[in-house]
Amino acid sequence: MKYVITALIAILIVLIFSFILTSVINKEKSFKEKLKITFMFSLVMLPIVLLLPVSLFATFKASAVILSLEVSNYQLFLLAILGLFIIFICDFVSKQAVTSIGSNMLSKKYGDQELSEEEMLEIIDKKQSNIKIWNIVIIFLASLVLYIASMAIISIEFTGLFLVIISIINILNYQLFFRSSYKTAK
After folding, report:
1. Domain chopping of the chain, boundaries
2. Residues 145, 39: Cα–Cα separation, whole Å
3. pLDDT the model gives residue 180
């Protein structure tokens, strides 16, 4: 029963956050329209929100068994639920960091030149592979920090290897569920 309650609380939190996000993005719309948008967004996101923690739990459990760690199923379940939020947080942090660092670097290098939009897009296209690598590195590092904090809160004993493995699993799930077609729109 505690698994069901935990999952329902997580789904409720996701719905609340999606409503808050919808409200911030659509300030001019009425409350009813915001609820409608949130409901439609939730219908699209619900399969991912339900499937992602299941995927994380299965891979975390396999990793814990392989590494012979003393971790309960409920602790791994909580860690998988938190993993859902960690992926969203890491995505946000990486996008902010890459955007900030990238724009600073490009403005220093090309700030004194008058470039057309086409030239700017060409420069960004050339930097896409570096941007993807930095995005993954930032997600990995943020994931490490957030999982350390999560495991400390849940009282999970862990090893550095387990931490690295679940952070890599986090990146793979992020790529699978959110960036499966990781191409730039042209």
Report:
1. 50-178
2. 32
3. 57
